[in-house]
């Protein structure tokens, strides 16, 4: 088999065989296929597409390119959750302890933030001493002991995807459904869960800018999951405005704890209940979504959900008092308020602009090596549809550096669009694909 023939076949719109796909994934992983051939192939895929069968084969080949986690020693149905990423998306911080408190074992690997999308692992490090790197045995033992552990992704998982994703990033070949779907699903499959809940974000602050694209991606991922025997459900949710009020690591942790206690923002609470209840359903713990919601609401109201997060923080080296006294989390030195210049209604809050401004402030990173400032970020006071009067606070900025604050304010610029008319309602959840 020759890589050049595979590139030509795809370039001319052909369908690759399982063996050809295995050959290119093996060759790229072991270095015998060079970057230039792999990038030519990725561009051919972007232009000609892949069938569902090819996408499934690519996913399985990448999932098998490195270590695969075996969660079979944990009892019960293990349900994983994945978000395609967004601004202010702290859902995992809430959902993981919440569904664990209900009785679903959560053994979750999460990523760090890159670009304007935050990452769960960075956020968790707001708890002083919190360990995100654990041995396989520590990770599994913690799930056996307390039902939940969230750690950083192992370096040996899906090396083919790691190389290919880095290559796509610099060759204009990220934006294609078969490659995105296989990239995400290969990691989920290698991470070992029995069932997968996908939160596919759509809108200005997301990868997928319109509903049609998001639905195509969601369907492709659900099809892959089904093909490989992992029950998969996708929720398509809005990312035109940031999720909740807080954007920035420690600020998001505070909001996540408030949400676990049943005092969270309306949109975040709704999303968490919607995702969490479906995870309980996938895990066979409840018979209906409504039953799942009621269970989760009860865990929030009784404080059991917050206690589960505190247990996780303690088990991973942090101090559980940080969960009960949020003033102990990193705090910024400078608090700056941005006020509205006119009366009206918030027509839009550009999630992408808020995300970029948070990176400028130091809350996110542009390269993998960049350090981040856990304390800085934004707390929105108004969301889309809210009435606002001139002089009222729109956003509180938490900063640690005057110069970065000024640059972030410039970046934030026109993120808020104020109109004289009430904007039409925008759904939080557009569709469920199963
Ligand atoms: N996230 C991934 O993990 N892979 C992609 O290709 C896109 C988003």
Which helices and strands appear, and what pairs or packs with what?
Elements: H1 3-11, H2 18-30, H3 35-48, H4 52-63, E1 79-83, H5 91-102, E2 106-110, H6 120-124, H7 136-146, E3 148-152, H8 159-169, H9 177-190, E4 195-202, H10 211-227, E5 231-238, E6 246-247, H11 249-260, H12 266-282, H13 289-301, H14 304-315, H15 321-324, E7 334-339, E8 344-349, H16 351-361, E9 377-380, E10 387-388, E11 393-399, H17 402-412, E12 416-419, E13 429-433
Parallel strand pairs: 1-4, 2-3, 4-5
Antiparallel strand pairs: 5-13, 6-9, 7-11, 8-10, 8-12, 9-11
Helix pairs in contact: 1-3, 2-4, 2-8, 4-9, 4-10, 5-11, 5-12, 5-13, 5-14, 9-10, 12-13, 16-17
Uracil is lined by residues 165, 174, 179-180, 183-184.
Number of separate strands = 13
Terminal Cα separation, in Å? 38 Å
Return the string of H and E elements.
Answer: HHHHEHEHHEHHEHEEHHHHHEEHEEEHEE
Please state the overall shape, judged from the principal axes of the Cα atoms: globular
Determine the fraction of residues in helical runs and give it as a percent range. Answer: 40-55%
Kindly identify the CATH topology of the largest domain: Pyrimidine Nucleoside Phosphorylase, Chain A, domain 2
Provide the gyration radius in Å. Answer: 22 Å
Q: What's the CATH superfamily of the largest domain, by name?
A: Nucleoside phosphorylase/phosphoribosyltransferase catalytic domain
Tell me the strand percentage band: 15-25%
User: What is the spatial order of strands in the main beta sheet?
Assistant: 1-4-5-13
Main sheet summary: 4 strands, mixed
pLDDT below 50 for ≥5 consecutive residues: which ranges? none
Q: Spell out which ligands are present.
A: uracil
What's the average pLDDT? 95
Number of helices: 17
- Give me the secondary-structure category: alpha/beta
By CATH, the architecture of the largest domain is named 3-Layer(aba) Sandwich
**CATH hierarchy, class of the largest domain:** Alpha Beta
Whole-number count of domains = 3
